[in-house]
Amino acid sequence: MSEQPYELERRRTFAIISHPDAGKTTLTEKLLLFGGAIQLAGTVKGRKAARHATSDWMEMEKERGISVTTSVMQFEHMGRIVNLLDTPGHEDFSEDTYRTLTAVDSALMVIDSAKGVEERTIKLMEVCRLRDTPILTFINKLDREGREPIELLDEVESVLNIQCTPMTWPIGMGKRFKGVYNLREDAIHLFSPTHGGKIVKGEVIQGLDNPKLDEVLGDMADELRGEIELVQGASHEFDLQAYLAGKQTPVFFGSAINNFGIQELLDAFAEFAPSPFPRQARQRVVQPDEEKFSGVVFKIQANMDPQHRDRIAFMRVNSGKFTKGMKLYHVRTGKQMQVSNAMTFQADSREHVDEAWPGDIIGLPNHGTIQVGDTFTQGENLKFEGIPYFAPELFRRVVLKDPLRAKALQKGLQQLSEEGATQLFKPMKNNDLILGAVGVLQFDVTAFRLKSEYNVDCVYDGISVTTARWVSCDDPKKLEDFKKKCFDNLGEDGGGYLVYLAPSRVNLQLTQERWPDIHFSATREL
Ligand code: GDP
């Protein structure tokens, strides 16, 4: 294990958080470009298109302009191994995003300079805060007219409650955008718009006092000097510890579409972003440098390639080292699993993994044996804590058009719900199949995928379920009694857990009052 400290130290695992349209997809692409993982920008979109060719439901994704899937991209930069976890942009898939955020060590927040802090950014920051995830900030679209940079930083500080420290500072904006001043290096990086896959180094002027600056910028040079003096007086100095504790965010300005400001961002990311943190398991804290392997599944994705009908469980390595062919202990089932076909993900391909270190994400092909939240170890009974399932707010009864396809429907619903976007409930009193979701779009995606991947036609009916609560009780006798009396409103979720399906809020409240010893939970721990 002598390479362990080296391999661990150089891992950087992160995700991008933003409000839709701020430029996450563009920035992802440009990070891959500057990271040398792709030759030509366009590959992220190309990747979408290629998958769409083999998978029909991507058509729907394309039509609606949303990205439904999460994927993992690994590349090397400045000797660091960077794992970028992509997250779905649409808010109906926010649970998926929340779970992905449990698998990263830091995040990159993208803000549109014209729009400032938007609603989804606020929500995602709340999730990051649960773990004090360190955040770098990129303020995008400086090539357009936007809001004053000072005002944007103020807004981030007051709305998101995090200290800002500018690492670069924009010189003008929109048509007058001239570049950025790098405060740490005392250097001006001049803007030259370059679209697509070209990386142009661009002219760099060393030193704010350099007379060359006056030649190039004219009056704007003195404006810049004045502004920087102000900014340096008014803002906080970069404090690595405060950043790592999630209390301060270093801020970069640029234009993703113009390949500008990306180099500074990526270099700082490689230098400062944290290597894997210790992880909290229910039993104890697991250190990444422990010799024994452990990992946790944060996402399941079925049918990434319909020709192979595969299901991939995405596992984050939390400690030790994974090697090909290794025997892993599947804690929930108590079974040993020999893993010889685990996958790793590059920007545009996937390959078999030979070894993986903490922070890395590996894909385990399986046929439904693995669930989101499952822990794997080398024998120890550990259970990593994660973001729970949330009680859905929307419910539909699934109606099958061809009764002979009932089995396929069951299988499809079960598998799709294990991916985590929808939840499946089976009432005790009848054979209904009820789908629960947090966003309406999830129902459409499920119907679409049932048709294209399982050849099952279904429609939805309304059903008088308003919300669900997971039910438990310390006293088995009382629980039995409750099950008898409330039989009509009880069911099981996809994982076999007991659920109370409430026809109305009032009903739920009355039932809770009537059964004080029963515990009603709005979330289910993974
Ligand atoms: P996402 O929804 O956050 O993934 O955002 P996208 O990357 O798809 O970008 C949303 C829109 O903003 C697209 O039309 C992009 O071309 C555009 N965009 C991204 N970066 C920039 C930028 O630096 N400047 C300008 N003007 N537009 C940008």
UniProtKB/TrEMBL annotation:
Gene Ontology biological-process annotations: regulation of translational termination
Molecular-function GO term, any one: translation release factor activity, codon specific
InterPro entries for the chain: EF-G-like_DII, G_TR_CS, PrfC, RF3_C, RF3_GTP-bd, Small_GTP-bd, T_Tr_GTP-bd_dom
Keyword vocabulary terms for this entry: Cytoplasm, GTP-binding, Nucleotide-binding, Protein biosynthesis
Chain positions recorded as GTP binding sites: 18-25, 86-90, 140-143
CC per GO annotation: cytosol
CDD domains: RF3 (cd04169), RF3_II (cd03689), RF3_III (cd16259)
Span of domain Tr-type G: 9-277
Family: Belongs to the TRAFAC class translation factor GTPase superfamily. Classic translation factor GTPase family. PrfC subfamily.
Alphabetized NCBIfam families for the sequence: prfC, PRK00741.1, small_GTP
Stated name of the protein: Peptide chain release factor 3
Gene this chain is encoded by: prfC
